């Protein structure tokens, strides 16, 4: 009753033929970029400084969280007495 009805002679899928509409795009070469030693040193130092700042923020956040848990525990014990 609720079975799907298939066509007797299924039509084959249409063949896809690609016809370019316009001329092919010409890729322009990138301009040369001069990377000297000072640029590399500045990038490495900047990366080290940013990594150290991120680590300092993470350590500070963990310390504040631990201090909050300890303070909350102390205040809970103080209110019970």
Characterization of the model:
The chain has one helix and no strands. By secondary structure, the chain is mostly helical. The longest helix is centred in the C-terminal third of the chain and has 44 residues, at 37-80. It starts with 36 loop residues before the first helix and ends with a helix. The mean pLDDT is 85.
Give a topology summary.
Layout: H1 37-80
Question: What order do the helices and strands follow?
Answer: H
Helix content: 40-55%
Summed up, the helix count is: 1
Shape: flat
Largest sheet: none
Beta-strand content bin: under 5%
Q: Radius of gyration in whole Å, from Cα?
A: 34 Å
Give the termini separation. 76 Å
Estimated structural class: mainly alpha
Q: What's the total number of strands? A: 0
Instruction: State the low-pLDDT regions, or none.
Output: none
In round numbers, the mean pLDDT is 85
Please outline what is shown here:
With 81 residues, the protein is mostly helical. Helix content is 54%, strand content 0%. The protein has 1 helix and no strands.
Task: Give keywords.
81 residues, mainly alpha, 1 helix, 0% strand
